[in-house]
Amino acid sequence: MGLWFYLQQPFAQHALIAGTLVAIISGLLGPFVVTRGAAFAVHGTAELSFTGAAAGLLIDGDAILGALIGSVVVGGAIGLLGVRQRERDSAIGVILAFGLGVGVYLLSRYHGFATQATNILFGQIFGVSDGQLELLIGVAVSVLIATALLYRPLLFASVDPDVAEARGVRTRLVGVAFLLVLALTVTEAAQIVGTLLVLSLAITPAAAAGRLSARPGRVTALSVAFALVAADGGLVLSLQTNVKASVLISTISFGIYVVARLVGAATRDRRGRRTTAAPARPYPATPTARV
Amino acid sequence: MTQARPMVAAPSTTAPSVALSGAALRFGDRTLWDDLDLAIAPGEFLAVLGPNGAGKTSLLQVLLGLRKLSAGAVEVGGRPPRRGSSVVGYVPQQKAFDRDLPLRGRDLVRLGLDGHRWGLARRNRETRDRVARVIDDVGATAYADAPLGLLSGGEQQRLRIAQALLGDPTVLLCDEPLLSLDLHHQRAVSELIDTRRRAANISVVFVTHEINPILSMVDRVLYLVGGRWAVGPPDEIMTSERLSDLYNTDIDVLRVRGRIVVVGTPDAAHGEPGGDHHHPVDTGPVPGPPRAPAGSTGGRTG
């Protein structure tokens, strides 16, 4: 009954819409993050959205817009500085260290409500204004379109970069584009769960999905579904209890992952192999010619 | 320099699938190779040999359209090479996939068709059947739906060959596809490539540092050494005289039990592993007698 009351309030509706949007786009990009080993890029851009938010607050009093613009700068910088993964990780470390320093300075110059900035760190979903919601919807739609456009070459470049390059994929361009899309997504997710807990929507659901299937389409669908359960479930629970939404979201997300690991471990190694076919046929000398 | 001599029983009117004329590749003031003239006939199996850094892989990159010649002209399938062209298929060396990679063998193969195009893949029965057929052709149906990261190196290479064949290429470019496979899988994978090129009359350009697993299949060898090159049937090129001339030092080429052993190449003298023509894997357990080459002509059955 209390829940029903809450769900009629605009603040709760805004939160649920925003949470749903964030869950969809984070769940969508999550499998690529896992495949490309880009967890640190997620963490780095998420923490740096704190700097962008602080700059936004200082200049215009708008933390979200600042964080979004900042994330594009950060995503582009990481993409341009680091191509290979190891190189990229150190590039992220370099930018992260400098960026956080800038953020601390900016915050020290800001004399408004500092809670606005700490909200960025831990998430404050129950306070999204109409204007912010429109911005979040716009970003989410852009991310969806960009991901659809990038999907095939991004998948190719993520699973098999050398062959993708040989087949004509501009792997570098695709990599930078992915980081930009990822930065926007992470910044949106940071509004919900906070920069410190972004990984619980951008990685955990995809990692759980990867335990249950190896079909790219199914992994993506499961990842989105898990992210939705975690985000919306956490928000609804948070309305009923007095626990902060981001805590519940990360807890549900982790719970899903644990279950997926247990289920996956039981089935994984024999999945997809046709055990009925005689395994003593490792290399047929003359495969049926059917060209 | 040796002039190319077509070894395949193709009529001289047949246009070559790959044609290089006066081709040169330089990095700064270092010349990898120059004045290279080579025409590869449809269905011909060309092995590209040479020490590390001789420009073997760079040659493939030229044919893939990823690298421009410093001089000369190149055509693949009658046209200048172009990125993402369906005329060529590409088989890389085996590398371990992450165990958790959310991809099945079937999906890897599918990427060979249109993975380089923008947008989402459209599903249809025709494509699905085509993928299934090429997987069947390489004998990978039994494990095509298993997670890629759980497959053996030989199984993965089989799927990569399927991926390369999916676009019905006329030229198959292979960059050390046998590296890090055990002998058993080396034989399986090279026989598969050979079978498919005969079935579909595909030209194969096979970069390798170890000719023995493919000796019976090779029509001609292109041997690159420090800016110099020679091309011809294995029996002509893989001799002490020719290699000594190429390397500018004394090289001994021995034939032992149907295998070719090259002794004295400079990179081998420095103890570089895998640098000579005696692959470390060869010392491992051999599951059967070594294959005798199909006649001393190097298998000119094309």
Please render the helix and strand layout as text.
The complex is a heterodimer of chains A (about 290) and B (about 300).
Chain A: H1 2-7, H2 10-36, H3 39-60, H4 63-81, H5 85-109, H6 115-122, H7 130-159, H8 161-166, H9 171-193, H10 199-202, H11 204-212, H12 216-240, H13 245-267
Helix pairs in contact in A: 2-7, 2-9, 2-11, 2-12, 3-4, 3-5, 3-6, 3-9, 4-5, 4-9, 6-9, 7-9, 11-12, 11-13, 12-13
Chain B: E1 18-27, E2 30-40, E3 45-49, H1 56-63, E4 71-76, E5 88-91, H2 105-114, H3 125-137, H4 153-165, E6 171-175, H5 183-200, E7 203-207, E8 220-225, E9 228-232, H6 234-237, H7 240-247, E10 252-256, E11 259-263, H8 266-269
Parallel strand pairs in B: 3-7, 3-8, 5-6, 6-7
Antiparallel strand pairs in B: 1-2, 1-4, 8-9, 10-11
Beta-strand content estimate of chain A: under 5%
- Helical fraction of chain B: 25-40%
Any idea what the shape of chain B is?
Answer: globular
Shape of chain A: globular
| CATH superfamily descriptor of chain A | ABC transporter involved in vitamin B12 uptake, BtuC
